[in-house]
C-alpha cells in the first residue's frame, strides 16, 4: 500500500499503541486516536483526542483514512453495554470514508469449544454474556463486509503480554514481582497449556492485515506461539531473571492487585479460560502472510527488560 495513505489507529491501550508504532516504522502516515491524552513518543505519529463512540465522532476522527484499525476498548464492566454502539460507529466511519477496517478481536466467541486446538474453524460456542456479545459483534463485522458496507478483516489474539501490557493476567501483577522477588500472580490451573500473544506480534499481525487485502472478509488468528503450560513459562522467566518466582495462585475469581472486586465479578464468567486447555493456533496466518510469532524466550526477555526499565523509572508509582 502507498505509504502516503493514511492509517488511523483507534484506541491507545497496549495494542493500539504498539500498532501505531509498527505502522510508523513501516513508513506509513499514522493518526493515533484516543478519548484520553496520548503521550508523545514518536513525532511521526499524529495524535488526536476524540470520542469515536458516536457516528459523528468516529467519522470526524477518521477523516481521510485509507485503513482504520479498531483497537478501542472500555472498562470491563461496561463492555456489554458500550461496545455494540462503538462497533456501529466505527463501521459507519469506515463506510463513509471507503476505508478498510481491521478489527482486533478476542477468543471469547469460542467459549469452551475445542480448547486443545483453537483454529479459525473452531465453532463459536460462547455462552457467557461477554462471549455472546463478542460473537454478535463479529457476525456484524463480517456481514458488513459481505454486504459491501465496509471492507473488514478480523485479527484474533489470545491473552496479551509484553512491553506496556499492565492490566493483563501476565502483566503488571506478575512481572514486577518476578523481577524483584515479590509476589507474582498466576491464575487457574497453570499445569494446562495456555496461549499468550506477544503484543509486538499483535501489532505486526494487524499491520500485515492492513497492508494486504487478501485476507478481507475473514477471521485470522494473529501470530502466537504454540501453547505450553503456564508453569513452563514461569521456569523460562526464572532462567531469565536468575531468581525463583514467588507465585501467588488464585483458583477462583477473587480481587487481587489491579483486579478489583468490580473487575473480578465481571471476569467470573470468563474464568473458565484458565481452567481448561487453551491453544490458539495461528498456522493459517503464518502460512498465508509469512509472519511468524517472536520466539517465546525472546519475547519474554524483551518483556522482562521493559519492566525492569519501567520499575527503575518508577512507572508503578
From TrEMBL:
<dbReference type="InterPro" id="IPR036291">
    <property type="entry name" value="NAD(P)-bd_dom_sf"/>
</dbReference>
<dbReference type="InterPro" id="IPR001509">
    <property type="entry name" value="Epimerase_deHydtase"/>
</dbReference>
<feature type="domain" description="NAD-dependent epimerase/dehydratase">
    <location>
        <begin position="9"/>
        <end position="218"/>
    </location>
</feature>
<protein>
    <submittedName>
        <fullName>Nucleoside-diphosphate-sugar epimerase</fullName>
    </submittedName>
</protein>
<dbReference type="GO" id="GO:0004029">
    <property type="term" value="F:aldehyde dehydrogenase (NAD+) activity"/>
</dbReference>
<dbReference type="InterPro" id="IPR051783">
    <property type="entry name" value="NAD(P)-dependent_oxidoreduct"/>
</dbReference>
<dbReference type="Pfam" id="PF01370">
    <property type="entry name" value="Epimerase"/>
</dbReference>
<dbReference type="GO" id="GO:0005737">
    <property type="term" value="C:cytoplasm"/>
</dbReference>
